[in-house]
Write a structure and sequence with these properties.
433 residues, alpha/beta, Rossmann fold, 2 domains, six-stranded parallel beta sheet, 17 helices, 14 strands, 42% helix
Amino acid sequence: MKLCFIGTGYVGLVSGACFADLGNDVVCVDKDLNKIENLKKGISPIYEPGLEELVKKNYRNGRLKFSTNLKDSVAISNIIFICVGTPTKKKSNATDLSQVYSVAKKIRSYITSKFKIIITKSTVPVTTGDEIEKILSKNKSKKLFSVVSNPEFLREGEAIRDFIYPDRIVIGTSDVKANKILKNLYSPLISKGAKYINTTRRASELIKYASNAFLATKITFINEIANLCEKTNINIEDISIGIGLDKRIGSRFLRPGPGYGGSCFPKDTKSIVKTADKFKINLSLVKSVIKSNQKRSLLLINKVNEIFRGKIKNKNICFLGVTFKANTDDMRESSSLVMIPSLVKKGAKINYYDPTGEKKNFKKIKNVTFSKDIKTALHKSDLVIIHTEWNDFKSINFKSLIKKKHFIIYDLRNIYSPLKMKKSKIKYFGIGR
């Protein structure tokens, strides 16, 4: 099939490259000329394991193309995926849909006599598809197009695997013709065991938000239980195993840490609350989840203050990893964005290392230095904060790399054994233990 992906961000580029790998003719469109030129050279704008190789392979064999020409790309395609950004509006929980609606208006002018399926792949609030349909219907026959919701469920760092082996494929449409075409498009994945679910368009839109809100709730729940464990001398890992083995609950997303971040959970929890408020429904549980997660970084900063007994000034603190999680370069809503500036204000000197390189977020902050390797980052540390669970950080010989007799490890991911740290005579703190 001939597919067009509008937007070469995380969703558009991963989905486009994967669909091309399944044998479809794909064109990825973006208004950013520099990004398009780099993609033609095989340079990905995002860090995602295996993505650059997939892009290069399918670009070379001609199945994957990149363009800034939206009109021609829409004209040659049967199915158009809208994959533009849907950030949270400033000083509001509402989703900014300006890019989605702008693209819809442009598509309308390019629809002629050939039937098109217009898919919202971007995460959008309930009734967005209705609004897109209204935009496209202006001076156009509804026989020329079908608006469908097809949310993505890709985890950053595992996106390619999640695309190839999805838990489910959700198609929101009441159009029999569109549903048949899309089931055929996804048939290679269905044959591998993926569940294909056809719902109404509004239900499909809400499924994505409800899923992320529930997962965010699990993360926040286990973090709050971890707080209790620290006060009662209980190991949170025992609790996670004990409740995770209950099949009604499951073990995934029951690992404590700095709190959820990234491109989905923060904005999607806010957006579902805003949608509920619009329909005069109080999602008090999700509101509590948002509030608890926002306070999480402050709790961790207070813990650092306790570790140093209030004497943070002039202490050398090393952050290992600053992205919101491992295997991604995504800094959105990362707890390091709150922790590092706050610790600097208290007088600390911060040195950080991240496998995905230096971050512009910290370049203008005084007393924050990026190191190009773990050894340099650790060298003079009084405190090492393991912020992200990269594999690079799971077997470090701290005593050989840190040139100080006394130093402390604060492991926000619980990747080290407290017992082994004790045997090595290293002062160690984890989360919930």
